[in-house]
Each structure stands twice: as C-alpha cells, then as structure tokens.
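Journal club side-thread
Mid-discussion, someone asked how the predicted structure for our own chain would compare to the paper's figures. Pasting it here so we can look after the session.
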Amino acid sequence: MARTELVSKAAKRKRAFWRTLMYIAIAAFFLWTTLPLLIMALSSIKEHRDAFQIPQVGDWLGALKIASFSPTFHHYTDLFTKEHFAQFILNSVIASGSASIIAVSLGSLAAYGLARGKIPGEQHLSFWILSTRMAPVVAVMVPLYSIFTGLGLLEPSRWRNLLGLILAYTTFDLPFAVWFMRSFFEDIPVELEEAAKVDGCSNLKAFRKIILPLAMPGIVAALILCLIFSWNDFIFASIFGQQAAKTLPVATSELHSTVSIEWGGILASGTLLVVPMLFLGLLVKKYLVQGMTMGAVRQ
C-alpha cells in the first residue's frame, strides 16, 4: 500500500514537472513571436529618439522604456501624405482578396471533384496538384513574366498590373486550396448527398445546399491562409506590381534609400501590414481552428 502511494506521488510529481515545463515553453514561444510585433507597434507611435534610445541601467530588457513614452501618430500621417500610399494599401486588398476568393472558389469545386469523383490515377493527380505549390517562386518567375508580357499585363497600367498580380497569386494559392479542402469533403458522409438526390437535388444543388455549409470551416480556413500568403508576398509584387500597382510590402521596402532610412515610416508601415491579418485571424479564429482540425481525423 505504501509502495503504491509512493509510486502515485512520484507519477504526480513527474506529470506536474512536465506540465510546468510545457507551460514555460509555451510562454517562451509566445514571447518570442509576439514581443517583436509589440515592440514594432509601440515604436511606430514613438518619436525617433524614444524608439532607439538605449535602456538605462537597471531597466531589465527595456521594460520601463517600452511603457514610458508620449505617443505620437505623425509617422502614420507622414505615410498617408505620401503620394499614392493609400492606393498601395488598396492594391494589396484588391490583389490578395481577389486572388484568394478565386482560388477558394475554383479550389472547392476541384477538391470536391477529387473527393467524390472516380478519377483514374487520382492519388497521382492530387500529388501533382500539390507539387505545383512546392515549386520555388523564382522557378516560375521567368515563365510568368514571359506570359504576362505577351498578354500586355506588364504595360504601365495599374489595372493590368493588378490583374497580373491576381493571376500570379492565384497560380500559387489554387493548388494549396485544392489540397487543403479535399480532406474536408472526404470527411462529409456521402449518404447526405444521396439523401438530397433522392429528394430531387442535382449534383450541383446538393453541393451548394448540403456540402458547402458543412465544409464552411475548412473553406474559411483556406481563404484566410490564401489571403495571408498573398498579402505578405513581396517577390511577385516587386516584379509585376509596377508604379501605381505597388502593394504595401513593396511600398514599405522603398522607405529607405542610399542616403536615408525612414525608420518611423517603416515601423508604421510594418504595423499596417501585420495588424489587419492579426485582427482577421482573431475574428475568424473559431472557423480557422475548426478548419485546421476538421480533416485531421479519419473514421
């Protein structure tokens, strides 16, 4: 009896130790990922001398300096007084939003077809679709540049350049959307569609009325991930987004030159780049978590 109690106490101490270690690791990872973003956001509303001042002796990691300052928003006002800066933000919204919607709309149909259709070599086809997403951006840059030149999408026209950006983003978002959503459709029982067809629904109507609502968490998750990929892109935007079609990442990179670096503007622009996706992720967190785990369990 005493031996059993000792073993039980030792097991409890071991579980408590590993649980504490896990909490410490989670807290360290949280600080590692969020502290740079917090410093960037706070520095964007500081004067230059306050943002880059070395902490005083005794101020551990600059904690007191982070909290004690007079906020100012002139870095943001300076950005929006620059020519076309608000337009660059709108370009990011148009290009990333349009590409994500197109990729998820076409990808849901393709994923449903792969999940339900009896296609010869289906597994090889699915892997081939995903492998197109694995290709590095530089591998497709020259072919896309040649195609877009032939289509006139690289001429000095804002809307033509934006159309080229949308097509480029869709090229990389679509394979991911197909691969990501296929498992969600496979997890939905076929009997639901068969029951709908007995009631007189066509394949398309059953897909629209039955399958899409059930797969909505996965669709929203795919949409958010595609949006993040496109919103944060720099390489495509720097090549295909010329002049008035620049996006926010490219506009941010141009805030420094050989003679000066606008640190305040870079910090403010970086905050504008991060905050929308952060809030969007928090707003749809429930759907994002459900979508990321929905296709993970197999019957």
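Post-session note: The mean pLDDT is 83.
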